Amino acid sequence: MIAHDLNVIIVGGGFGGLRVAQGLGGTSVGVTLIDKRNFHLFQPLLYQVATGALSPANVATPLRSVMKRNRNVQVLLGEVTDIDLDRKQILLDQEWFAYDILVLATGATHQYFGHDDWREAAPGLKTIEEALDIRSRIFRAFEAAERESDPARIRALLNFVVVGGGPTGVELAGALREIANYTLRKEFRNINPVDAHVILIEQGEHVLPMYVPKLSAKAEALLKSLGVEVITGAAVTGIAPDTVTAMRNGQEEIIQASTVIWTAGVKASPIGMLLAANGNATLDRSGRIEVESDLSLPGHPGVYVIGDLACCKSDSGRPLPCVAPVAIQQGAHVVNEILARLHNGPPTSFQYRDYGSMATIGRAAAVVQLGRIRFSGYAAWLTWLFVHLMSLVRTENRFLVLLQWSWNYWTWNRSARIITEPGEVAHTEKP
Amino acid sequence: MIAHDLNVIIVGGGFGGLRVAQGLGGTSVGVTLIDKRNFHLFQPLLYQVATGALSPANVATPLRSVMKRNRNVQVLLGEVTDIDLDRKQILLDQEWFAYDILVLATGATHQYFGHDDWREAAPGLKTIEEALDIRSRIFRAFEAAERESDPARIRALLNFVVVGGGPTGVELAGALREIANYTLRKEFRNINPVDAHVILIEQGEHVLPMYVPKLSAKAEALLKSLGVEVITGAAVTGIAPDTVTAMRNGQEEIIQASTVIWTAGVKASPIGMLLAANGNATLDRSGRIEVESDLSLPGHPGVYVIGDLACCKSDSGRPLPCVAPVAIQQGAHVVNEILARLHNGPPTSFQYRDYGSMATIGRAAAVVQLGRIRFSGYAAWLTWLFVHLMSLVRTENRFLVLLQWSWNYWTWNRSARIITEPGEVAHTEKP
After folding, report:
1. In Å, how far from its chain's centre is CA A203?
2. Domain boundaries, chain A
3. Cα–Cα distance between B318 and A329 in angstroms, integer?
């Protein structure tokens, strides 16, 4: 490769990392974008893959195709397993790569708060594979119920528990209700899908805790009108196959449910622990790396940490939420920091501009919070639709998603509800 | 369920089985359609999933949604593991189901002619999971080559071998060349994807042996013009990770290739062996069940065998090929046989009407054989496009496929080329 003024390595092709790579594209800086996946994942719509409304490729964009025109950017598929801050090198699989500037944007994964044994019975929703796993569990439950004769077992098969009342939990619960009410209607002969029971369990007082109370209450009302049972102020104390145990004001409640989805806890990716282990980073409760106001790693001005991996305090002193807009704005900030270095400009501190947040609830409703403007219902849903459609990286996916959304809206169908399985690869021998 | 004049069980929701279920929909016959998958798979376009042009859901249709309006048809997800012809019952998982009429349409899988150990290194293309496995292998090979420094290893990574010169092999080879020539162009910095080498190995004298020699030759020419190395008259004698051994006129040739795809052998699904084991069926070389002229199982007038599972002789005495049109026409015939029984009509013998066959080669070429009419090139490709588009079960998929085809055609891109892995589900812990 041609010589570059600076050699920048970006680890992670999510919202933050991709923004940095795009911002540095076409500059005199040499960029290496590393991800263990070959695509950028549009997380906000992943729940629609998990509920059979969209196909994985609709919410994923090959990183190479995004970067193809930027000759100063190379994309490498691989996993960073070690970082040597003193020698300024990262270990990609067995190979060391040197950097002048390092941008860490490896995001977050689930956390089960010390109960990793819950993972098997209650998968989370962070990767495409997890979405497909959840999709299979949801539709397989209805199939099993259709074949089952024991009424108690049928009830358990038609009970769906979503743990966590954040945006993902709310959107999943709404979509599950929609599947039961409309998608599967008339398709079964022995069960009635409408009998499915969707339970959303939130530890806090309200769903969507990060929203203003008025909107949280509205979201709760919308969920209930769809038929979702919303249990707030309840802590999940146990998850085993087919049973969820929840504790609400001292009362233990046991729910029989064969499908449980976990959206209750987020933990920064292990790279944080890697750095902390060598005393190079301080982590917050959810494993996020505490950063300077310019988003650099304390003591290491050449290393930036952004997105869900970073614990970045707002002016109010509260850490910024783990959402795409934060990661994207931090990415843009890091681009400016890096370009300033070329002209020996001083570091500047990052300012987050909160444009608001939104969550969709079922088929044609949503809650939207844009600064002082708050609204819900159909208009909010259209806003949500438009914003998400426009945020997709590729134009083609905008068309594909719009086409499927329109189709699903008019036909009440969900075209991507096919049950696929890793195991099947080996099963071709069976009849 | 309400009482029905006849209780028909159909095993398999492929082209044949689905045709029977649709034909009996709305009649006074009670129908149970059983499949181990919850969708009908449009096999002819599966190679486009394997090469990242389409998403799995685009070539799959949930059986329930096809059948939802036919109240006399129930769909069950499960695997038939035994058949009791005397008691007229089938064993679905642990449960026995009684039938008056049984239709066996479980199709075919691969065969490695006694070398099942080749499967690991050279997967076949029959299921969606296999298509996704092949897709991952193809694009992972380019990713690995980009990271590799040893020239010999790079060559092996960029060698793609397709074993079998039938329609699937020809279409795969063409698509692989298209990926190397156009899709990945400009996306890599250390390798040039155009250097990829695609080798198609066919045992017979020509590719597409079932076509008239003129068209086979034309297909071969089209493949070569795309840059595919076509090796005919060569028998594969060994497949190991990264090496394929082929024998051509006494000469042994060893090809270094990290990606090998197997399309050389088809074997009927094990239900045939199940019946043969009890002396209830005679199988041909590829495990297909020999049937009467009315498609019934000899000695069992109430049992029909259709599609790839059936060995049905044409007037010329040659068995009919394993293609969708045969299965569909046999399905239609069985519907008539069953409805005739209601009025005690006599069995009639099945007549296959060959409307021709076609295969696409790469980006904008195909060979088409419609009775006496034979043509190739762009017009043939448009014909292929139209016929396949119209054959898709759901209108929505026609739009989705057409949109992606047009997009891929104009942008030279393949949107669904994401590398997904079963393993990843467990990998959420890694950075």
Report:
1. 20
2. 7-36+78-110+267-341, 116-264+358-411
3. 68
For domain A7-36+78-110+267-341, which CATH number applies: 3.30.750.24, 3.40.50.261, 3.40.50.800, 3.50.50.60? 3.50.50.60
For the question of residue A171 being annotated catalytic, the response is yes
**Interface-testing mutation among A9, A64, A82, with chain B (most B C-beta atoms within 10 A):** A64
Residue of A nearest to B400 (CA): A400
CA A48 to chain CA centroid, Å, is 12
DSSP-derived pairing of the beta strands A39-41 and A366-370: unpaired
pLDDT band with cut points at 50, 70 and 90 for residue A403: confident
The three-point CA angle A341-A343-A346 to 5° equals 55
Dist CA B425 CA B421 (whole Å): 8
Of A357-366, B30-39, B147-156, B259-268, the one with minimum mean pLDDT is A357-366
A403 chain-B contacts, CB cut-off 8 A: 396, 399-400, 403
Domain A116-264+358-411 adopts which CATH fold?
Answer: FAD/NAD(P)-binding domain (3.50.50)
Report the chain A residue with the minimal C-alpha distance to residue B75.
A188
Determine how many CB atoms are found less than 10 A away from the CB of residue B332: 17
> How is B66-106 classified by DSSP, letter by letter?
HHTT-TTEEEEE--EEEEETTTTEEEETTEEEE-SEEEE--
pTM listed for this prediction: 0.93
Residues 6+ apart with CB under 8 A from B30: B1, B2, B3, B4, B5, B6, B7, B8, B72
- Rounded CA-CA distance B52/B404 in Å is 11
ipTM: 0.91
**Which of B171, B202, B220, B290 is labelled catalytic?**
B171
In this structure, what token pair is assigned to residue A266? 């987020």
